[in-house]
Amino acid sequence: MGKINIQEKFALFSEEWTPKIIAESNGQLVKIAKGSGELVWHKHDNEDELFIVFKGHLTLKLRDQNIELAPGEMYVVPKGVEHCPVAEPDTHFLMVEPASTAHTGELQSEVTVAAEDQEWI
Amino acid sequence: MGKINIQEKFALFSEEWTPKIIAESNGQLVKIAKGSGELVWHKHDNEDELFIVFKGHLTLKLRDQNIELAPGEMYVVPKGVEHCPVAEPDTHFLMVEPASTAHTGELQSEVTVAAEDQEWI
Question: Which residues form the Cupin type-2 domain (chains A, B) (predicted)?
Answer without folding.
Answer: 29-92
